[in-house]
Amino acid sequence: MNVLLLSMPDYFEHMPPVAVRMPNGALTSLAGNVDSHHRVAVADLILCNGRLRESVIRLVRELDPEIVGLSVMTFQRRTALRMIDLVRALKPGVKIVVGGYDPSLEPEAYQGMGVDYIVRGEGEVTFRELLRALESGRALEGIAGLTYADAGRWLKNPARTVHHLDDGEIRRPNRGARVLEGYTLLGRQVDVVETSRGCTYDCSFCSIIQMRGRNFHTYSLDRVLEDIRDAHEHGARTIFLVDDNITLNVHRFEQLCQGIIAAGLNKLDYFVQAMTSAIASQGETLAPLMRRAGFRYVFLGIENILGEDLEFLRASAKNTARANGRSQGNATVRAIEYLHRNKMYVVGGLIVGNPDDSSQSIHANLAFAERYVDWPYIQHPTPYPGTPMAEDFRHRGFITNERVEEYDGTTAVVRSAHLSAEEIEYLRWKAERWIKLRHMPVALRHDPWFVLRYAPQMLAHTFRGCTFRGLLGLEDGHKDFERYKEIRREERAYL
To answer: Which candidate, 271, 239, 249, places its Cα nearest to that of 377?
Structure first.
């Protein structure tokens, strides 16, 4: 069968597409786990901005797919609907499959969108079995994790058990299935590698634990190193380790770093997501090892620097420093100091606009980001389907925006007890532009030719909507903000 797998073009506002075009690892994993006689093509549509419709038309006509699969996040749902309409107009008989955390947690939203099949949870084995059943004409009721349309009604099969990853059932990704090029991080070709899945914490905003439960499973380190080699052989110079929480097992992470060094793969740049408590507790030995292994950027899930906000986010435990079995307060500053001491850069993940936030508490977090982090990744609490956060905000009546295409993390869709959603977003936007600007010299030293070539576009993205009068304080900054908001609304019209 001919299979076309698409990721949506909608991107997170934090990074200009010219600087960051990250591949969707889930799609290449699907491609690597179907039977080999199928012809599978993977297209990350973030590579097609500005020529999206023409690219999809070309792909459908050239590949003539019998199955089109879409990976969808919540803020991409509207684009997915329009994509389905376009694909069906091009090929009315095609079968449409959707997957990802949004269809997994709110499958009902897709049952009126022209979808045939919904893959819930981890998709590799479910999708493999679906293709086998369609090819042979077998019934679908035995395929765990599948919801499907049948004679005008929707049937939901039992959930699939979470994969333990250590039995070889999940094969390595098929990067050769990609039919588009241009994955970059600051001008260097980038790829994604997964070493584990899951997390045992229960953060209120997390869609992953709602989709797969609180657990942690790992691939063998030999498999991980093979996957890194494969990514490198396909041209990657930067590797983003996309694990939900790789530092749950610090000893294993240290072994991975040692394995990277021993295999000579430490000439690549690595980007990883890490937990502040783990870095703070083990950073004296872990951080130097990470640097020798080639780690350059570390995304720290700081979440918030205020205790009451961490309680709401259910993120206190993973941000607490410990020594000799005792709590020693917030781990963030110590973790950052270890990383900076070893010449790594911190992408600081913070969440502002929580239910009890005032302008003072938001300013405290923004001031912390300005002082300590190298690149801010500041978001607003977003009521993603099925999460405890969504239930909490709905119960309080704080949700002010039901347009899911704006559930991108940088659009405030909930208010606090003290501030409107609009003012919360304005405070973040106003400060974050200047914090981002501080990282330009670092990027210039590492990737001078790319930054010199694309600095105008990156600056234009960061400061879009702004005028010189506004930047100089000669005009109310809210006017610049309104222009920015209008640009964002236009940007979201991908199709």
So the answer is: 271
